[in-house]
Amino acid sequence: MGLFDFFSKDKKESLDKGLEKTKESFFSKLGKAIMGKSTVDAEVLDELEGVLVSSDVGIETTLKIIQSIEERVAQNKYLNTSELDRILREEIVKLLAAEPQPNYTFSLPEKKPYVMMVVGVNGVGKTTTIGKLASQFHKAGKKVVLGAADTFRAAAVDQLKLWGERTGVPVISHGMNTDPASVAFDAVKQAVELNADVVIIDTAGRLHNKVNLMNELSKIKRVMQKVIADAPHEVLLVLDGSTGQNAIMQAQEFTKATDVTALAVTKLDGTAKGGVVIGISDQFKIPVKYIGVGEKIDDLQLFNKYEFVDSLFKK
Question: What positions does the entry give for GTP binding (predicted)?
Answer without folding.
Answer: 120-127, 202-206, 266-269
